[in-house]
Structure formats: C-alpha cells, structure tokens
Design a protein that fits this description.
disordered N terminus, mainly beta, 7% helix, 11 strands, two-stranded antiparallel ribbon, nine-stranded antiparallel beta sheet, 215 residues, Immunoglobulin-like, CHRD domain-containing protein, signal, binds copper (II) ion
C-alpha cells in the first residue's frame, strides 16, 4: 500500500446541527430523524501518545443504515487519519496502563488497545468500501487540513457493527499521532505492527470514545 497523502476537501468547520434533511437516495427516511436511534461518543485524547486530539461522534442508526458524523480537532494536520468502529472488546477505551514500549518509548499502539476496544469492524472512509479490509486505506481517510476535520457519511453498517452499536460495545478510534512533535509521521516509535510499511505514528490511536445510546 502506498503511503500517499491525498488532500481531501472536507469541511473543517462545524456547520449545521440536527435535524437536517439528508438529500440522498438512501432508503432511510431521515426527515426529522423520527424514530431513528442516536448514539454519541466523546472522543478523548490518548495522552500517552502525546495526543491532544479530541472531538465528538454522532451515529444515527435506522436499521443497518448509519449516518456517522465525526468532529475532531488538535490532530496532526495534513496527514491521513484512519478511523474505525472497533467492536468485540470491552467496549472501552484503553488507559495509559495498556501502553507498551515501542522503540524504547512508552506509547499505546493499536494492538495495545485491542482488549479494550476490540478489532476493526468498520472503516470510516470518505468513499468506497467501509469494511475492515479498508482499515489502512490511507488515501480514503480525512487528512485534517489545519489540524481539524469534520467527517459526515451515510452508509450501511455490517450486521455485526450495527449489533455492537446497539449492544453498547462499539468504540470510535481515530488514529495517527505526532509523538515527537516534528509535524509528520516518522520513525520515532518504529514501524507499525499493522503494516511495516507505515510508521507506527501513522497508526497509533490519537483519540478514542465509546459510543453510547443518547436518550
Ligand atoms: Cu481503529
């Protein structure tokens, strides 16, 4: 996989709030969001990775059709940020105690957090496939121009993902950190255990939040 940076024209600012009409040909009727379940996650920085990235996620779910809206700021600018719905763990974010030693430095890799948040089930890509196969599709994730991004996409979740969201077992993880503050993904932590062609900085969690039903 080539580690290409592709700059996507995503709206960097928070814009409209719900309710709003989604003008698409989706089967779901989003008008007014009547009867549509809503879940929210508070994304908190993974501080052991020297990340200050934070934000919010809202998931509206109608059957298996989901609208996923993510707002993140204070994240490394102009670099792709893989982001996923993880399932099958404890439905929690890892703590600093879950961190390992990577290239002699204490940091939390994606694997270090698996027991807490589980495996990738849904890749929150900007276009195309959203399965786990696209987990590191770095040319189809937000690149955070200016250090922030807003992601908003409506697509069908897998049955497993929809079930996990409703079972309070789904966790949003946004990846890609700048551990040493040099403004890019480098080798300070060595290579990623997920793909040795990528630096670990490119795949370590930056922000994390468990999804909970919003009543
Ligand atoms: Cu992930």
């Amino acid at each position: 996989m080539s580690f290409t940076k592709r700059f996507l024209c995503l709206a960097a600012a928070a814009t409209a709030t719900v309710p709003l009409a989604v003008g698409s040909a989706q089967a779901a009727d989003w008008s007014g969001y009547d009867g549509i379940e809503r879940f929210e996650a508070e994304l908190r920085p993974v501080t052991v990775n020297n990340s200050e990235a934070s934000g919010t996620t809202t998931v509206w779910l109608d059957g298996n059709t989901a609208r996923v809206r993510i707002e993140v700021d204070e994240i490394l600018a102009d670099h792709p940020h893989a982001q996923h719905i993880h399932i099958g763990g404890r439905g929690e974010c890892p703590t600093d105690y879950d961190a390992g030693i990577h290239n002699g430095r204490r940091a939390l890799s994606t694997v270090d957090g698996l027991d807490a948040y589980g495996a990738v089930e849904t890749s929150l890509t900007t276009e195309g496939d959203t399965s786990a196969d696209s987990g590191l599709a770095v040319d189809r994730f937000p690149t955070a121009p200016g250090g922030a991004f807003t992601y908003d996409r409506t697509f069908d979740l897998s049955q497993a993902a929809a079930d996990a969201v409703r079972a309070d077992n789904a966790v949003i993880v946004v990846h890609g950190i700048d551990y040493d503050g040099d403004g890019t993904y480098g080798d300070v932590l060595g290579a990623s255990e997920l793909d040795p062609a990528l630096p670990m900085e490119a795949t370590n969690p930056a922000a994390c939040g468990p999804l909970h039903m919003k009543h």
